[in-house]
Write a structure and sequence with these properties.
With 236 residues, the chain is mainly α. The chain has nine helices and no strands.
């Protein structure tokens, strides 16, 4: 149904038969395109989880207002945010094995690059969430005789995580979109599948239009749940 309004746009004669489920060849092509969804979601979920862990590790040492550790935090965030994701993906896949002597699969390289790139944003999200906790919460935790890391684990981080959940959800949407770049190193995600089908069918307009619709539907669904989460947290 989404494709019908596009059938008569402009002077170009759209060839939706190439991915139409009404014929065997079109159904095969359609299944081929959709098969990349699993990889796209999988790599995005793993990357966002790893980036959250790295971001938290980068953020925690700077909390006690130590100037040196805070400086390290700032330098890390600014450097990582300044590197284009596509360049980082290519460097991890082609350059890192030369430095380390270890070869990484395209899938692992994509996750490493996405995780590192996203970790800078996660570090800023966690820093903002922790700073949003009232000073009285720290004082109350101190009155219970908790040390610094106990305060974080038992009192501060649970509250900060609740505050940052909407922002983390929005970043997941961002990672999902940026994951399309990993197709350049051969990962069979949605974009890679579309590229391969274009080469074999010579119908770039129809296939890339369908690719846009795939990402659109996927992101709209995730955004819907993120908004529901935001409303729930506000009500709580």
């Amino acid at each position: 149904m989404l494709l019908l309004p596009l059938a008569s746009c402009g002077e170009h004669e759209w060839g939706w038969f190439i991915i139409s489920p009404s014929n065997a060849n079109g159904l095969t092509n359609l299944q081929f395109l959709i098969s990349g969804i699993t990889t796209t979601i999988y790599i995005s979920v793993i990357s966002i989880i790893i980036s959250m862990i790295i971001g938290l590790i980068i953020t925690i040492p700077s909390i006690p207002k130590n100037k040196f550790l805070n400086y390290i935090n700032i330098v890390y965030v600014e450097i990582i945010r300044s590197i284009p994701l596509l360049v980082l993906i290519l460097w991890v896949y082609y350059g890192l094995p030369i430095l380390t002597g270890f070869s990484f699969s395209p899938f692992v390289s994509g996750i490493i690059a996405l995780s590192i790139s996203e970790s800078a944003f996660q570090a800023e999200i966690f820093r903002g969430g922790i700073n949003a906790i009232k000073k009285t919460q720290w004082e109350a935790a101190s009155s219970l005789g908790l040390n610094f890391y106990q305060k974080l684990r038992l009192v501060i981080l649970p509250q900060a995580f609740k505050i940052t959940l909407p922002a983390i959800g929005n970043q997941f949407v961002y990672v999902l979109k940026m994951s399309s770049l990993v197709s350049v190193i051969g990962i069979a995600d949605l974009t890679r599948k579309a590229n391969e089908l274009v080469v074999s069918t010579y119908r770039p307009l129809e296939i890339y239009t369908f690719l846009i619709l795939e990402y659109l539907v996927l992101i709209l669904i995730i955004s819907y749940f993120v908004r529901k989460l935001e409303k729930k947290l506000k009500n709580d």
